[in-house]
Amino acid sequence: MTKKLKDMRIYKQNTNHVEKIEKLICLMLTMLIAIAIMATSAIACQPCQSKLDFEQSLQQADLVIVGKRIDYDPEEKMPSRIKVKIIKVLKGEIKEAQIEVKSWYGMCGYGIVVDDQIYVMILIKSSEMQGVYTTVNTGCSVTQLLVKSNKVSVDGKNMSIEDISKIINTLP
């Protein structure tokens, strides 16, 4: 066997060896990426272990308003924040005519998820986002009530906005 032929065989063996190592590295990187993707997408919306009732939600709220979402777009899916026009303040003090409210947390609707109708919204000041409001108890509470003819339905009972104000005034 000539030296040239022998060198070519060694070169071919080395090339095959390098290709195998490259394929192994690619396979390992693909597996790591797949594990990373699966780990991040495995975090699902957590259900409430317990939910605050209407009076508990009102008691823990910083702000209870009658409001209407002013940036509603039926085409928009899962906005992280919404803009709400304040119609009436039932609890708390606020100078603004409109506020920003946390709506969707990723794919989880723990915030206020509403259309462009009028709602009573039960809110707290966000500790994480300056000037933004969010739901009481991370949404494990009564968060909003649809207003129809100046009434809302609470646990199957119709109640006026004034009735809610009276309840708020009797809370400790």
Strands, total number: 8
Distance between the termini: 99 Å
Q: Percent helix among the residues?
A: 25-40%
Structural class: alpha+beta
Low-confidence stretches: none
Notable traits:
172 residues; alpha+beta; OB fold (Dihydrolipoamide Acetyltransferase, E2P); 5-stranded mixed beta barrel; two-stranded antiparallel sheet; 3 helices; 8 strands; rod-shaped
What does this molecule look like?
By secondary structure, this protein is an alpha+beta fold. The chain folds into two domains: 1-43; 54-170, OB fold (Dihydrolipoamide Acetyltransferase, E2P) (Beta Barrel). The protein has three helices and eight strands. The chain is rod-shaped and about 105 Å long. The termini are far apart. The model has no long low-confidence stretch (mean pLDDT 87).
Quick recap:
With 172 residues, the chain is α+β, with helices and mostly antiparallel strands. It is built from three helices and eight strands; from the N terminus they run ααββββββββα. The strands form two sheets. A five-stranded mixed β-barrel has the order 1-2-3-5-4.
Helix-strand layout with pairing:
Layout: H1 3-41, H2 54-60, E1 63-69, E2 81-91, E3 98-102, E4 118-125, E5 132-135, E6 144-146, E7 151-154, E8 157-160, H3 161-170
Parallel strand pairs: 3-5
Antiparallel strand pairs: 1-2, 1-4, 2-3, 4-5, 4-6, 7-8
